[in-house]
Structures are given as C-alpha cells and as structure tokens.
Specification:
The chain is an alpha+beta fold. It is built from 5 helices and 9 strands, in the order βββββαααββαββα. Helix 3 runs antiparallel to helix 5.
Length: 189
C-alpha cells in the first residue's frame, strides 16, 4: 500500500476534488489569458480542470470563469487541441527516453510478456479483437494498457511494452491517460 500523501485539487468545471496529478493545471498569464501549465512549474495562482471535454465546456459556460480566464478563447476545442499537442510532446519525450534506456520493447515479443511490463501501448489501428486480447492479458497481470496515439508514427500494428523499473512510467501513464480523455472518443480501451 502506498503511504505517500496525494494532494487533491478541485476541478473548476465539474467541481469535484481529484488527485492533483490527474488534473490539468492552468495559470493566468500577464494578458489575463489561461495558459496550460504542463509541468506545473509556472508561478502564480492557478486553477485545475479534469482532462475531459465536458469539464472544459462547463468552465467555459460559467460567466465568471470565462470572464476571468477564457476571454479571448474562441472555442473550447481549440484549447483542447493545443493541450493535446503539448501532452503529446511529453509522451514522445518519455518514449524516446524509455527506448534509449532499454526499457521499451515489443509487447508481442516473448521476452517481454505483459506480466513483465508496467505499461502496454497498443497502436490505434489494431483490430478490436487484438486489442481485447492484449487488454485481457494485461489486466490479468495488473499491467496498465493504453492506446498509442496515432500521431506518434509508430509502425503499423505496433504494440510496445514499457518494462518494469522505468523511472518515468507513472508520468508516462498519466499523460497517456490525459491524452485519451481529451480525445473526442474518450478512453480507447
């Protein structure tokens, strides 16, 4: 059991308290615009949103929130696309580092069965049956499984596995989860 304290913050869209690392943080720029703080390093007063389009819509519909943070945003969709691109860059950096350090392997390879992996990344173009098989194998071994964003340009039919022990596995998993939630389809699996 993890005895570490996890700070909670409230989403200004749905007004629910969630663990801070599951939310997207924004800060107010000098121009009064809400700016996505991807690595939570910017100073100043911030606010949090769940990584779901519904929370963005709710925050934008609220007159006080819109007046304070989203004044010049034309559409919520533009903000979501911008945030997805930023998160995608973080995912790509983590995957490159994972590959360079030898923690990234092929999930279909017998050397890296799902039980030996911390994360399994399944290409979006895989058939639903194959995705289901990978999901079942990963679930039985308590391995987290995510859909690999198509824009990362992995080989067709790619099925990658992040081996246990990769120091940034939790951050990678959290960014993959946020990316899936921000997509119009929601979580892929």
């Amino acid at each position: 059991m993890d005895s570490k304290h996890r700070p909670y913050r409230m989403c200004i869209g749905c007004r629910k308290a969630r663990p801070k690392d599951e939310l997207l943080r924004f800060v107010k720029s000098d121009e009064g615009q809400a700016v996505f703080d991807a690595d939570c390093s910017r100073g100043g007063r911030g606010f949090y949103l769940c990584p779901g389009p519904a929370c963005f819509e709710q925050a934008h519909r609220n007159r006080k929130t819109r007046a304070a943070y989203f004044r010049t945003r034309d559409t919520v969709r533009e903000a979501i696309v911008e945030i997805q691109e930023t998160i995608l860059k973080f995912i790509e950096k983590d995957l490159i580092l994972c590959k360079k350090t030898g923690y990234l392997g092929d999930a279909r390879d017998e050397e890296t069965p799902p039980g030996e992996s911390e994360l399994v990344l399944v290409a979006a173009e895989r058939s639903p049956e194959e995705k289901g098989e990978m999901h079942t194998a990963a679930h039985s071994s308590q391995t987290r499984i995510f859909s690999l964003p198509a824009s990362l340009g992995g080989p067709a039919g790619c099925c990658a596995a992040v081996r246990k022990g990769f120091p940034l596995a939790n951050r990678l998993a959290m960014n993959l989860q946020k990316y899936e939630m921000l997509s119009s389809k929601g979580p892929a699996l």
